[in-house]
Specification:
Elements (H helix, E strand, L loop, with lengths): L1 E10 L2 E11 L4 H8 L2 H13 L5 H5 L8 E4 L11 H4 L5 E4 L1 H8 L2 E2 L2 E2 L2 E3 L2 E3 L1
Antiparallel strand pairs: 1-2, 3-4, 5-6, 7-8
């Protein structure tokens, strides 16, 4: 099993490329794709984004107006919780985030450094 996380890499404020990272232990790619491509998730995501005005909630709390790109699950999903609408589709468990805040959530500093680094064009954990 693996946690499936999108890592967005920026240069000069513009998106230059994306990387997908799998972190062991939470949800495999098939379960991830099944949930995030479902009509139920797509409808929930759209409704949540509309409810929060399409802005990054963490940036907004700092007084910054930044468009949200990702609807993040505060309680990370696994293969079981992805099947539980009271967790997976509950607006209280969601947060609209920009790419930067989403990356900070998943790749935050640990012990003075990052949980990942780039080596030879690859993400190393």
């Amino acid at each position: 099993m693996a946690l499936y996380v999108m890592l967005y890499v920026f240069q000069s404020g513009g998106l230059i490329f994306t990387r997908r990272a799998f972190l062991f232990g939470v949800m495999d790619k098939a379960a991830h794709d099944k949930f995030y491509k479902s009509k139920a998730w797509q409808a929930c995501r759209a409704a949540y984004m509309q409810n929060v005005g399409g802005l990054c909630e963490r940036c907004l709390a700092k007084g910054l107006i930044v468009p949200a790109e990702i609807v993040h699950h505060k309680q990370y999903l696994d293969e079981n919780t992805a099947k539980m609408p009271e967790i997976a589709l509950n607006h209280d468990n969601l947060e609209a985030l920009c790419f930067k805040c989403h990356n900070n959530e998943h790749f935050a500093a640990v012990k003075g450094g990052k949980r990942y680094k780039f080596e030879g064009g690859r993400i190393v954990f």
